Amino acid sequence: MAQHQARKRFGQHFLTDGAVIEQIVQAIAPQRGEPMVEIGPGLAAMTQPLVERLGKLHVIELDRDLAVRLRQHPQLQVTESDVLKVDFSALAHSMPTTALRVVGNLPYNISTPILFHLLEHVAVVKDQHFMLQKEVVERMVAQPSTANYGRLSVMLQWRYDMEMVLLVGPQAFNPPPRVDSAVVRMTPWAQPAALDARLLSELVQVAFSQRRKLLRHTLGQWLQARAFGGVFDVKRRAEEVAVAEYVALAQAVSA
What we know:
With 255 residues, the chain is α/β, with parallel strands linked by helices. The chain has two domains: 8-188, Vaccinia Virus protein VP39 (Rossmann fold), CATH 3.40.50.150; 197-254, rRNA adenine dimethylase, C-terminal domain (Helicase, Ruva Protein, domain 3), CATH 1.10.8.100. It is built from ten helices and nine strands. It has helices at 18-28, 47-54, 64-70, 88-93, 111-119, 134-140, 151-157, 197-207, 219-225, 243-254; strands spanning 14-15, 36-39, 57-61, 76-80, 100-105, 125-133, 160-168, 173-174, 181-188. The strands form two sheets. A seven-stranded mixed β-sheet has the order 4-3-2-5-6-9-7. Helix 2 (47-54) links the parallel strand 2 (36-39) and strand 3 (57-61). Helix 8 packs across helix 10 (243-254). The longest helix has 12 residues, at 243-254.
């Protein structure tokens, strides 16, 4: 079969380092029969060891040529689609159990939209393991009062327990990306705070819209416009407010 050329428009960087692949698979620890979905399997470098342990695997691939190759594998169920258009809740309900495990080497150019898309389906997810740009993972797991702490940190930490499990250099890929990569484990909280996710998203977006200014210039005005009568210290910068405080504020505003 002809060699596949990586396509820039799809953000393709194929993982080729066998030792790194084995470390990732060990971190995922797939068990036979578990319902798992792999996003962007590419040349199936990680797909093969996963399906050997699982027995079968559902994969989502946008590249038509790669989808044709993947369909030749009898243990793979292939969805040829943009992952942002995939209804993961419906996919989970089509499987024996709705606790999906989701994995993938995500295209770095759309990794954040994919993370937010999956956030909408978190109720059917058991865990997620993703290869991402290292800087993105650092933002995901960042703590308050640090430069990396921002909207992505708050929105994901509200719903997931997250940890960086592996650092991966550019040499592990073909073609090598111009950035370092990392693998993150995302496990949904068993009992997350109940709130309006859209309201939290809007609130946090406003808060971090001018992160160098005090919150009274941004979030303070937003709260005033909603006639918020509660107590919230706006004499701080957005990065100084913990996730739990943003969540509590969103609940109070909603109430």
